[in-house]
Write a structure and sequence with these properties.
The chain contains 19 helices and no strands. With 422 residues, the chain is mostly helical. Helix 13 (263-274) packs across helix 15.
Length: 422
């Protein structure tokens, strides 16, 4: 670890507000270890336990919520980072934080809030994550008394920045999110009123380029949800890995992820995956043996994908794999295998009629909730957001406060607030 620590300089460890060393009788922790602890103890991190990943966590004790998903992404990111020689605490912290900005109802809620926030710069889950880390989470204030959020180091904040550009510079949206929602709004990583913190954390960074630690976090997220969504769908009874409707799945793959992929290519890729020794030969039946077999497949797939990326990355560069000195390399075959798994989950889980109908009701609920809070603010806002409302300079800023309040709710609390206020 000492060798890895030496690859990061004073600028990487710098915080927006300088902090003195901790008291001498406290356990010694390095700066990036302190970053990780701050995210783990954050209120917005605990909130993820009540956020749906794909399958409603109230429907089965086995399936994942956004908190367990984030923990699994963090484990994958840490292992891959350690193998590459990147700082594992930075990649793990970025993975733990990657879903903090998700509003109620995931990407469906994100889509609704982006429309509702049109007059204050839109809404984007990754930009909301940065806003939480640098403003909304209470930990540290600057000399003026303004919150700087968790006051993480520059290297950690940069690793948390999946889309390092504002809305004005964002590419045209396309494709779908991991949970099947069409990407209507552009993907961006910072709201205009958070640009000072963004400019600070991007000091010395090439414009529009992600650091390698952010690339590790992003890959870990893709690997986790591609594998785990199939696992959750299998346990929920919506996916049978021994009876896959290939033509229908391939249509979904082309519509959502890979429009140019041929049937022959996708057949070949699925064949490779099915030749993995742990791919099931009998349908999942809920027994311990069946569950163990499914968990072994999950482990083998994660190891397969990360091992291929590690080998390709080492073959392409001598490193060191620190910030902007190298990039992660994802082989085309590996990416197609991940895409096939996403397509299986998308076809059998994401496109279910009852799920589409539920998403429409959720968007209506958020629109009604934002409207009633705008009408009754600041009285109905939480105390912290009430103070933000009083400090807001104009209608756009006040709208942002209401959006922040709604985005801070869980799926369950959003429903409760809506029932109470409407």
């Amino acid at each position: 670890m000492e060798v890895v620590e030496e690859r990061y300089g004073a600028e990487d460890r710098e915080r927006i507000v300088p902090e003195p060393p901790k008291r001498v009788d406290a356990p010694e922790r390095r700066p990036f270890e302190r970053d990780r602890a701050r995210v783990v103890h954050a209120a917005s991190f605990r909130r993820l336990a009540a956020e749906t990943q794909v399958v409603d966590p109230e429907s089965d004790d086995f399936v994942r919520n956004r908190l367990t998903h984030s923990l699994e992404v963090a484990q994958i990111a840490r292992d891959l980072s350690r193998a590459l020689g990147t700082h594992p605490d930075i990649a793990e912290t970025a993975a733990l934080a990657h879903d903090l900005g998700h509003p109620p109802f995931g990407h469906n809620g994100e889509r609704a809030l982006h429309r509702l926030a049109a007059d204050c710069g839109g809404f984007e889950g990754n930009a909301q994550t940065l806003r939480l880390l640098t403003r909304l989470e209470a930990k540290t204030s600057d000399e003026s008394g303004a919150s700087v959020g968790l006051n993480l180091t520059r290297a950690t904040l940069d690793a948390c920045t999946k889309y390092p550009w504002p809305l004005a510079d964002a590419p045209t949206p396309g494709g779908v999110h991991s949970d099947g929602m069409t990407r209507e709004g552009a993907k961006f990583g910072v709201y205009d009123d958070d640009l000072p913190a963004f400019t600070w954390l991007r000091t010395g960074a090439p414009a529009g380029r992600r650091c390698v630690e952010a690339q590790v976090m992003d890959l870990a997220d893709d690997v986790a949800y591609s594998v785990h969504d199939v696992e959750d769908g299998t346990v929920a009874g919506t996916i049978d890995l021994t009876r896959l409707d290939r033509p229908a799945i391939w249509d979904t793959v082309r519509a959502w992820y890979a429009p140019d992929a041929s049937d022959d290519l996708l057949d070949d890729v699925l064949g490779r995956l099915q030749r993995i020794g742990s791919w099931p030969e009998t349908a999942y039946d809920g027994t311990r043996g069946s569950l163990a077999a499914l968990k072994n497949l999950t482990s083998d797939l994660i190891g397969r994908f990360c091992g291929a990326v590690q080998q390709a990355t080492f073959a392409a560069s001598e490193g060191p794999f620190v910030r902007y000195r190298a990039d992660l390399v994802i082989p085309a075959d590996t990416w197609t295998e991940i895409t096939v798994l996403k397509g299986i989950a998308a076809h059998y889980v994401m496109q279910a009629d009852e799920r589409v109908a539920l998403q429409s009701r959720q968007r209506d609920l958020l629109a009604e909730l934002v409207a009633v809070l705008l009408e009754r603010a600041p009285a109905e806002l939480d105390e912290a957001f009430r103070a933000d409302w009083h400090a807001a300079a104009d209608d756009a800023a006040r709208l942002r406060v209401v959006i922040d309040q709604v985005a801070s709710l869980t799926d369950v609390s959003a429903v409760d607030w809506h029932a109470r206020l409407t």
